[in-house]
Every structure is written in structure tokens, then in C-alpha cells.
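F.,

This is the one I mentioned.
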């Protein structure tokens, strides 16, 4: 898998932070960009479209909007403001113990789930999570 991840030659998180592809930020745009990566394989430690882990996926997408995040679900959860689940919008972060993803609406998450799976939308499987919004 490492060879596969290393084969990516497009923009990195650092490249996007230096020159954001989308200089204006709104949740709908963030979610739209994130959905473009549906089907990318999970790669532990991955943070490019060659392969993502959960926090690498979020870090890469938000970098395209000029928002720098750590490569850690805990750190990403601390980077924003917790909001009520009832106010969640696609593009907000779903923060769980040791995992995170994008809220996808209707109780779903868009995430890089685990080794052997790919970025996908699925129902949130636990009641033990928080919603975090960046930029407020």
C-alpha cells in the first residue's frame, strides 16, 4: 500500500494550504469537494487521493479551502466548535473516539472507514459522537 500511496503526484495538503483551490469557504462546497473522493481506498496514514485514512481525508479536503488541520481525529475535533446534532449540515465533522468523517446529512457519514474499504457514505453506527463545525 505504501508504494501505491507514494505514486500520487498531484497537489499535497501543503500545496493547497499555500495556494487554496477554493479561497472562499462554505459547508456545501466542502462537502461537494469531499464527495469527489468517494471510492478512494483507505490507506493508514494516507493523506492524498492515492489513499486516505479518516483524518487524512478531512485534512486534505479542508486544505483545499485554506484551512490547516492536524492529521488526527482528536485534533480535528478540537479545531472547531461543537454544535448540536440537530444543527449538523453536510461538511461538518463527525467526531468519534479515534475516528472522524464528514457529516453527510440524514444521519450519514462520508468517511475513509478502515483498511480494505474505500471512502463511502454510510449511516452513523453509534450514538457516541459529536458534531464539530469549523470556521465559527
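My design for it:
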Amino acid at each position: 500500500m505504501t508504494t501505491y500511496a507514494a505514486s500520487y503526484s498531484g497537489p499535497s495538503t501543503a500545496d493547497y494550504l499555500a495556494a487554496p483551490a477554493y479561497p472562499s469557504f462554505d459547508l456545501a462546497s466542502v462537502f461537494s469537494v469531499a464527495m469527489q473522493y468517494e471510492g478512494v481506498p483507505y490507506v493508514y496514514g494516507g493523506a492524498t487521493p492515492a489513499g486516505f485514512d479518516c483524518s487524512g481525508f478531512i485534512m486534505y479536503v479542508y486544505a483545499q479551502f485554506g484551512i490547516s488541520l492536524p492529521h488526527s481525529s482528536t485534533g480535528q475535533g478540537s479545531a472547531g466548535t461543537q454544535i448540536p446534532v440537530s444543527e449538523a449540515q453536510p461538511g461538518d465533522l463527525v467526531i468519534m473516539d479515534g475516528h472522524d468523517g464528514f457529516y453527510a446529512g440524514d444521519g450519514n457519514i462520508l468517511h475513509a472507514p478502515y483498511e480494505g474499504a474505500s471512502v463511502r457514505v454510510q449511516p452513523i453506527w453509534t450514538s457516541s459522537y459529536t458534531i464539530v463545525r469549523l470556521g465559527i
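The CA atoms of residues 38 and 134 lie 22 Å apart.

Talk soon.
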